[in-house]
């Protein structure tokens, strides 16, 4: 999880000021900047892991809703078929429209 490119990139963005001060400006020791980068890697992994968890929960809920919708459609279709079969069995052709003018 820590070796993903997105985690390392986000950690570099989070630790960019410390890295800049250490490697470009020279006001900060390199050891301190690298420790801050390692801390940023842990934080970035936690943040991206949390986002991934939220995405999985959302995706699972969306799948459950889709399954529920399909089940309701199947139940409605089954009910229509039962009603049509019962009407056919009773000899009822449904409502008759009279053409009185």
How many beta strands in the DSSP annotation?
A: 0
Shape: rod-shaped
Estimate what percentage of residues fall within beta strands.
Answer: under 5%
Question: If you average the pLDDT, what whole number results?
Answer: 89
From the alpha-carbon coordinates, what is the Rg to the nearest angstrom? 32 Å
Order of helices and strands: HHH
- Biggest beta sheet attributes: none
List segments where confidence is low: pLDDT < 50 over at least 5 consecutive residues.
Answer: none
Total discrete domains? 1
Helix content range: over 70%
Number of DSSP helices? 3
Termini distance?
78 Å
Structural class: mainly alpha
Give a brief outline of the structure.
With 101 residues, the protein is mainly alpha-helical. The chain has helices spanning 5-14, 16-25, 30-90.
């Amino acid at each position: 999880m820590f070796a993903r490119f997105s985690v390392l990139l986000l950690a570099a963005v989070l630790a960019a000021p410390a890295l800049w001060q250490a490697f470009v400006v020279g006001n900060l020791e390199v050891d301190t900047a690298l420790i801050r980068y390692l801390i940023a890697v842990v934080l970035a992994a936690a943040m991206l892991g949390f986002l991934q968890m939220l995405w999985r929960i959302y995706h699972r809920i969306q799948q459950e809703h889709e399954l529920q919708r399909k089940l309701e459609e199947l139940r409605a279709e089954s009910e229509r078929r039962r009603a049509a079969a019962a009407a056919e069995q009773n000899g009822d052709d449904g409502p008759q429209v009279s053409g009185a003018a």
